[in-house]
Amino acid sequence: MKATGRGHDDVRFTPKLISKIGCLASAVEGSDYQPTTQQVAVHDELKEQAATHVRHLKLLLEKEVAGFDALLRRRNVPNAISNNIP
Length: 86
Known about the structure:
By secondary structure, this protein is mostly helical. It has helices at residues 9-12, 17-29, 37-74.
């Protein structure tokens, strides 16, 4: 299982993007000084990774969900509902 609910999943699975963002935020927040050059570089890298994932999600929702909705309409089944992604 990937999610055991026991808090040990980071030991068995590589950190995901959200974990990396949280770790960076914690390190920057806990300092009395400006972010280091390395922290700024990591922030920029993670920001681009997040933007890439958002673009992929938007494409998925626009293309795949729209196609699935069209299939459901052809078969007289109510549409799937998806929330807008910023």
